[in-house]
Design a protein that fits this description.
The chain has 575 residues and is of the alpha/beta class. It contains 18 helices and 10 strands. The strands form 2 sheets. The chain has a 6-stranded mixed sheet with strand order 6-7-8-3-9-10, sandwiched between helices. It has a 4-stranded antiparallel sheet with strand order 2-1-4-5, covered by helices on one side. It is elongated and about 125 Å long. The two termini are 49 Å apart.
Length: 575
């Protein structure tokens, strides 16, 4: 997983900015020039009042025109550089957002199944959208704003000290309440922004989760329950938003009052200095302009701080979300299996529990021989699906080892394992797109001939060709326009195209009617031919294509043999 998706939020932001550092440097230098040009303005106004207005009484407009031209040039350059720098930084912000979304999405895809089972899809969507958007604000506005506001504050203070240190001292003292106010705002807003990210994730989850089961919600009349849960999340977000808004209201209202106070202080102190002849009138005018610029910069600083806090909260949530320990880490030095892969799977004293307090599998010792079709039976909760997930390495054993052709699964590269072992469940998920796209899911570069050959072998070609656009037919959302049996056949064709050595079917035909199940059994014979297969089922109809039966109870293997051998015992669990 890349540094973008892990580690400290600040490190993540620096990693994101690294590819654009030279462009950012040039754009930030442009912002520096903009600040310098803006600082020149009040000095030119002072010069115009003190030097250029007097000669106009004798008809000499040259100095005044020169100062006016200088102000116009400075304003034009400021406009051009501001447009260029803001557009440039905005484009970098969009590029960073694009990079971050791709990185985080790839990180999500690589996270183990245990992690996906822990978090809801709504939370994942919130992290991918809302939180990523907040991080992008760092580049869209904060980077330019923070440099401009800080440089402007420093530059204005220096300019005022050069104009008149006494009046500057009075203005600086009047800034103290503003600094206290900014500190108060940061301390009050920071935890609220972090809590706001969680509230947005909850409200997104409450909105998204029912979308996958609208028919269930409506059939049970659970709309009011959903509305109640959503309303509770929305109320929590509203409370947080009100708290943040109230803080903003106090801050900006007090800031306006502080600006007015500083203007009064500057006008009073400067007026006295002008009356004493210690400061020219133009310098007083410049001072008043600088006060407005100073507090404008401080307001900009407050905005930048708030945007930074929001972005930091989003970055923190992303890094926290992805910082969990990888329960199935990729091996640092993977071992390659000998070719061709035989597909022998061995459980060597394997125990496993989803938590420290549970033991779904206990001391399992069993071998699935190469090319053997094995049925696994047992009551609900016996551990059958857990065994399937262990072979697919969705989890690692708590103790013991699982070997594929003598190689521990922990030592196999994920790409090699996924091309060797395929797990099919009763929920055959089809993605939006064409039938051909869904068949070539694990082999995206497979040609049309290869796709059709896989479908023909499985027995899916006839119904596919009968569809309006054949293999180019859009299956719509989750394959809604196809029957359960048709979706299953497409999944079988997908597995056949992958050409795995080991196939695991976890209740793959449990939800089908008997005629459809018989059709799929014919496809199964083709799919499983020459491959090691583990078929998990409750129905005994699967036994006609199996070589061996395993019976599991409470995570332990209680019977092992051919169907005929187990039936001959008469009194066993299988019989």
């Amino acid at each position: 997983m890349s540094d973008v998706a892990t580690g400290h939020p600040a490190r993540m932001l620096l990693t994101l900015a690294r590819p654009y550092r030279w462009k950012l440097l040039v754009l930030l230098m442009a912002s520096l020039v903009v600040v310098a040009l803006q600082l020149v303005g009040p000095r030119l106004v002072a010069l115009g009042i003190d030097v250029a207005i007097g000669p106009t009484s004798s008809g000499d407009y040259g100095p005044l025109v020169s100062i006016a031209v200088a102000l116009l040039v400075a304003g034009t350059l400021t406009w051009i550089l501001t447009v260029v720098s803001r557009r440039g930084i905005g484009r970098i912000g969009e590029s960073v957002t694009y990079d971050l979304r791709r990185e985080v999405d790839a990180a999500f895809a690589r996270l183990p199944i245990a992690y996906h089972e822990r978090w809801s899809s709504g939370v994942i969507i919130s992290r991918l959208t809302a939180d990523v958007d907040t991080v992008s604000t760092v580049f869209a506005s904060v980077l330019s704003g923070v440099l401009t506001s800080v440089l402007m504050t420093i530059g204005v203070l220096v300019a005022m000290l050069l104009l008149d240190p006494v009046v500057a001292g009075f203005v600086i003292v009047s800034m103290i309440p503003v600094l206290v106010l900014i500190t108060w705002r940061v301390r009050r807003t920071a935890p609220a922004r972090i809590a706001e990210r969680d509230a947005i994730a909850r409200i997104t989850a409450d909105a998204v989760e029912p979308l996958g089961a609208v028919a269930v919600v409506q059939s049970l009349g659970a709309e009011s329950l959903h509305a109640h849960e959503f309303g509770r999340s929305a109320s929590s977000l509203r409370t947080l938003s009100r708290r943040i808004t109230a803080t903003m209201g106090v801050f900006y209202g007090t800031m306006e009052a502080a600006v007015a106070l500083a203007g009064v202080v500057a006008l009073a102190a400067g007026g006295l200095r002008v009356m004493q002849g210690a400061m020219p009138l133009g310098s007083l005018a410049a001072f008043i302009l600088y006060v407005g610029m100073l507090f404008g910069a401080m307001q900009q600083t407050a905005y930048v701080i708030d945007a930074t806090l929001t972005a930091y909260a989003g970055a923190r949530k992303i890094t926290e979300f992805l910082a969990g320990e990888d329960s199935v880490p990729e091996p640092t030095q993977p071992i390659s299996m000998a070719r061709p892969v035989r597909g022998e799977v061995r459980f060597a004293t394997v125990s496993f529990g989803y938590s420290e307090q549970t033991h779904e599998i206990s001391d399992l010792d069993v071998v699935l021989r190469s090319g053997e079709v094995v049925a696994m039976l047992g009551p609900t909760g016996a551990g059958k699906s857990t065994i399937a997930k262990l072979i697919a390495r969705f989890y690692d054993p708590t103790s013991g080892r699982i070997l594929l052709d003598g190689v521990d699964l922990k030592h196999l590269a994920e790409a090699e394992l996924r091309s060797t072992v395929v797990l099919l469940t009763q929920e055959m998920f089809l993605f939006s797109g064409t039938i051909a796209d869904n068949i070539r899911l694990s082999r995206p570069h497979a040609g049309a001939d290869q796709v059709r050959a896989a479908a023909v072998a499985i027995g899916a070609d006839d119904f596919i060709m009968a569809l309006p656009a054949g293999y180019d037919t859009d299956v719509h959302h989750r394959g809604a326009r196809l029957s359960a049996g048709q979706r299953q056949l497409i999944a079988f064709a997908r597995a056949f195209l992958t050409d795995p050595a080991v196939v695991i079917l976890d209740e793959a035909t449990a939800s089908l009617d008997i005629p459809t199940e018989r059709t799929l059994h014919r496809a199964l014979r083709t799919l499983l031919s020459g491959r090691t297969a583990l078929i998990i089922a409750h129905r005994l109809s699967t036994l006609d294509i199996t070589d061996r039966v395993l019976v599991v109870e409470d995570g332990r293997l209680v019977e092992d043999g051919t169907p005929q051998e187990l039936l001959a015992r008469g009194s066993g669990a299988f019989a």
